[in-house]
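As agreed, record minuted below.
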Amino acid sequence: MPVIVVTDSSSRLSASLTDRYGITQVPLHVTMPDGSDYLEGVDPIPADVISVPGVTTSGANPQDLIEVYGEALERSDGDGVVAVHMSRRLSGTWAAARLVAEELGDGLRIVDSRAAGASVGLTVLAAAQAAAGGADRDHVYEAAVRAAATADSLLCVQTLENLRNSGRISAASHLLGSALSIKPILHVEDGILVLKERQRTTTKAIARMIEAAVEQAGTDAVTVAVQHCQAPGLAIEVHEKLCAKLPRVTSSLVVDLGKVLGVHVGRGAVGIALGRGLEPLD
């Protein structure tokens, strides 16, 4: 049996991809002000949850993980499990995973993707492709670490208010983004979202984000993922413009960021993730 790859619902992988590679996704949590708890990808979550005051999100807890990891270890028939999760600086899932790994032993290895959203998904796919090719647990782990280290991720948001309220970006960056209606371009640096550039309008910010992604890709063959929060038309437009400018696209995806990440980035956010070294997904 190949090494089993586990991730969380922040990876935004479609059912077709998880089924194809045997990937297991652990749901993250959305908690309403009245205490109602929803599991992403399992429970029906209201579409407007991202704008409800007082909504919070949380990572997978040890109880969630020990059940999933235990089942995956059994399914691997001794070949082991590699779990790839959202950045430890953005979610508590990685820390919970480390605690569970200490209990379950050497058959389980944990990877900090140092990212969120589709960039996590691309790292997961790199690990899953290595596993499908017959790599052992350590080499699958190394494939995931390498993919995480070479990934690029950019994000345009309509406002930094959601990120500031959730503590995912500093108050100082909030002021930079809100002054004179400036539209920020964010990127992931050392596992956290930081301000990369500012533009006067959303149109200019998105155009510059596409340019920056093309610059980052260079002449590399890249797998492209365009992600959005309740803005499918905008995401398709970005996807078309970006793929037309990139010299070597291995595969491309357009994905919704989902409710957990949507709470933090707000409606209208659109982003780009670039992965390297992946096989075609078609």
Q: What stands out?
A: The mean pLDDT is 92. Residues 4-148 form a domain with the Rossmann fold fold (CATH 3.40.50.10170). Residues 80 and 269 are 37 Å apart (CA to CA).
